[in-house]
Amino acid sequence: MEFLLSVLAGACVLLLFGLAIFIHEFGHFLAARWMGLQVDAFAIGFGPALWKRTVNGVEYKIGCIPFGGYVALPQLDPSGMEKVQGGNGEASRDDLPDIAAWRRIVVAVAGPFGNMVLAVALALCIAWMPGVRTGALDTRIGLVEEGTAAWEAGLRTGDRIESVNGHKVTNWTDLQVEWQLAGGANEATFGVLRDGARHDLTIAFETNNVLGVRVLAGVFPEARCEVNEVIPGSPAAQSGMQVKDVILAVDETPVMGAYHFSSLIAKRGAKPALLTLKRGAEHMQLSVTPRYEEDAKRYLVGIRWSDGRERVKPWMMYRDPWQQIKWDSLSVVRVLQALFAPESPGERKAVARNIGGPVAIVMGLYSTVRGSLIDGLGFLRLICVNLAILNLLPFPVLDGGHILFALYEIITRRKPHPKVVAALVNTFAVILIGLMLLLVYVDIARKVKTNRVLREMAQEQREATGSNAPPAAAEARP
Questions:
Q1: What predicted TM-score, i.e. pTM, was given to this entire model?
Q2: Which domains does the chain have, with CATH numbers?
Q3: Which pLDDT band holds residue 209 (cuts at 50, 70, 90)?
């Protein structure tokens, strides 16, 4: 059964990724036909053809490498461009009429436009589907553990973070992105709103975690605290607590998240706690007395909880399609800004350290599809927005390169010299191919390292608790 699910998920990945490539190239194809350009080939994938057929002078084919595609347009591609993309290298033919620069711009823009059309269609479908899980975590703090750098800097439970180094943040995902891009220093200035007053707090990060990811140690967002499991024989079981209960308060203190609940219980010791719960549509109260667990070295009530963060992916935060596409676009632009126009040298380094390549994208899509096909459609929407924006960058080999050459012709009223164009195309092609190979290597190396670290952590936990020991710190993590 597991093998069958893996095969189906893999097939879905190929289908969805191929759809994103197809719609991009189909946009070029339709615009080229509309603008009167010669079309020599329409290909999905690279490498030797698995299937091909020539119809009305156009060669249609499917390559054995599914992650890419091209439309061979000899009147659009500068000399050498088509050859780089995988065509027959006849882009410099003189027997075809010249095409106005504005028409070439229309054809170049049509590919990214096709991706955006698909992105909008996917966003609308997700918005109209019943039962879709969406939701963005607010930047309000649910817990700050005492003794951490954030606590010492003055951050407190209930604060709302509004900016990081001057960059506005509206949800927890934006907040995480900004502290990863916070520059070379191992700290950042957080704009915090507390009781209507603004405070600027300089907080140091921790980067000595096993995966090498920068984190705000001991800081957790406000979120719901839902019971996932009640440990048999535990105080929670004896009190009548049930799976799906949402814990709203401990005595008179509102619970601002699962980590906050764990903190409140740990501080109570063996004193009975009056819990306010939401069970279905009803509110109820029950008393539970925490029990000290030797393995966990703390007081627990014996539940496993969920704080909701694992249920909603960043690309599924907003049900409103326009708001979600806006977030998709701005997140891509923010990374590009940090890469090409960083406010500090550390931003570019942070992007280089965290950016994912083709392998990471495919693995991310595969993992998402395995969990939920609807979430996979959301991930595909994000991929389409990325493809649209990245292809409009003004670099030769990309659609933005075609636009740049055409704009040069419009402004100067002369075509760029073919040798200059060929040199630029070949140079950027080598850079692009080299970058893709580097990202593939980085993706694989990162995945291998992550798997090794996770195995070591699991082994250490088994050795520390014993394979037959009950779950330690059941409230600590789901």
A1: 0.83
A2: 1-129+321-420 (no CATH), 226-301 (2.30.42.10)
A3: low
